[in-house]
Amino acid sequence: MTTAVHAQPGADHTHLRHVLRSAAMLAAVQTVLIVAIAYATRLLAGTAETAALGLLVTAAILVTAFAPGLWTRARSVEGIAGAAAIGLGATVAFLLIDVALLQPIGVWTNRWREIGGGSNWWYHPVFWMVGTYLAWMGAWVLANRAERGGSPFPAAAGLAVATTLAAGIVAVLVRFPGAGWNVPTFGVAALAGLPLAVLLSSLGRRRA
Question: Does residue 41 lie in a domain region?
Fold first, then answer.
């Protein structure tokens, strides 16, 4: 996989203040989506729950993956790294929101505590890694798409959704442990789908 390495005017906004402000904005959006997902699992069931979770999880993945790269206008390694920093900063900000607000008001159900062996603190390290990784991969796709000219986001988002669906389908067909025709499987499939999107988006890039 390759990425754009040529500096471009008006691109790669990675000033510390901008990164911190963007991380705070991303954390706020993520918090709204995560709370919505948590209550959707409580209040809905069956087809309604699946549909709502599908939309919310897709939105959460796309926002986490692509908002940082759009905010840094990632075109080179610097912008991609800045986007990853925004992703990491957002997860740290979410930890503070979670500890100060979400846990005290009981947002998380017993399902989450059971997964963590009686604790809901297990997901913070996972979120740090996933939030940074998705932002890194998403910015890479945006940089590759931008090298081909035009607005990078719509094509990048469509490519990421397609590769994620493909990865999820393959996981089910090969009977990957725990995989099934459900939203969690396709949510996890984004971890494989985004690198595939990076690879595909690098093909046919314009060369300087």
Answer: yes
CA quadruple 29, 31, 35, 37: dihedral sign: positive
DSSP codes, 153-176: HHHHHHHHHHHHHHHHHHHHHTT-
| Burial of 206 per CB tally in 10 Å (0-12, 13-18, 19+) | exposed
Domain count, the chain: 1
The domain in which residue 51 lies consists of 16-202
Q: Is residue 38 part of a domain?
A: yes
Structural domain contains residue 9:
no
DSSP string, 173-190: HTT-TT--SSHHHHHHHH
User: Does residue 10 belong to any structural domain of this protein?
Assistant: no
Tell me: the pLDDT tens digits for 156-191? 999 999 999 999 999 999 999 999 999 999 999 999
What values do phi and psi take at 108, rounded to 5? -85, 140
Cβ density class 39-70: b for 16+ within 10 Å, e for less: ebbeeeeeeeeeebbeebbbebbbbbbbbbbb
Residue with tokens 């999820």: 168
DSSP 8-state symbol, 97: H
Query: pTM of the entire structure?
Result: 0.89
